[in-house]
Amino acid sequence: MDSLKRILVISLYFKGDFLFHTAALEALKRIVPGAKIDLWIKSRNSDIALNDPRFNEVLIFDDIKTADYNENPKLNFKGKVNFLKKLRGKNYDLIIDMTGKYSTGLFTCLASPKHSAGINYNFFGFCYDNFINLNTSTQEGHLIQKYLSVIKKAFKLDDNTWESITKDIKIKPYIFIDDNSRKFIDEKLKELMRNPEKPFIVLHATSGWSAKELNSEIFADLIKYMNSKEYNFAFIGADSDLKKLEEINSYLDGKEFDLKTRFLPLQFIQSAELIRRADLFIGSDSAPLHTAGAVGTPSIGIFGPTNPEFSKPLGEQHQVLYHRLFCSSADDRQYCTRNGGFTCPTIDCMKMIKSAELMSMIEKALTKKEY
Description:
- By secondary structure, this protein is an alpha/beta fold.
- Helices cover 37% and strands 13% of the residues.
- It folds into two domains: 6-166, Rossmann fold (3-Layer(aba) Sandwich), CATH 3.40.50.2000; 180-366, Glycogen Phosphorylase B (Rossmann fold, 3-Layer(aba) Sandwich).
- The strands form two sheets. The chain has a six-stranded parallel sheet, sandwiched between helices. A six-stranded parallel sheet has the order 9-8-7-10-11-12, sandwiched between helices.
- The model has no long low-confidence stretch (mean pLDDT 94).
């Protein structure tokens, strides 16, 4: 291990999976504290990675396909060649591929590191010196623990050594929030808090794909309920979330329910700070829910086509709302039998969620704290 001076980690998935990689990166830093660790990401995760002091250099290259949905990278053959030359020029002692596609396997091999390790879902395990035979979506257990196991196997550590290294690593994402984001949210909270003596709830109405999203009418009931209780609340998300908020608004009456006044299109780290300052977070299986797990804010995670045992925030302060059906995920499967809802015509698992059970969970979360 002393010979490892420069390491590259490849992490090219969406925000949720990248967040699940961060505990493994913490373990890596402890195993080789003297090494310079570089990170190859896509620009969609730059706001998280560039804020992380554990990395020597963050490399961003987008034009490579690593997901089956919401992704259309450019062919950009010249760009790929130039980026590969850049990797080769850094003379990495070790590359760890946490993405595991045929493309990342080939980049790992062609970058000519002294050592390499990685998972691979596309039968390109031959590209690594140490192929780690792990399919994260078809084996039981939380994704964070699975990604941690990649680091253990990459270094071929025995159980005692691994336990010593990871004994105080929490099974949660690691997020680093800067002072500017804290100050920015300070000012936003002054605008948002109608009644500082009441709880503050942050909500996220969308997700990676529509099958995981809670029905808009249920959200409308939730807003009426929070208003009746005089709770403070805000929605977070991207500008694309406005369509969902307009749909929720259609079930509400009066200008007092105009959700645009309660919507904050924040940068990710700013959203993380807002969630940290909240008394409760409510959202589907997506990056903001995992952020609540990272910053320790109590949450209600809404699950349907995905298995909560793979990705729910861990801890007593986190609740899961999930109706398991005959077509739901098996214990050792991340996605339901309808391809994570993509091929399901009804999404009954989400339609079964009722306003009353969600409100009951909110009260359970908030009764643990005095206002």
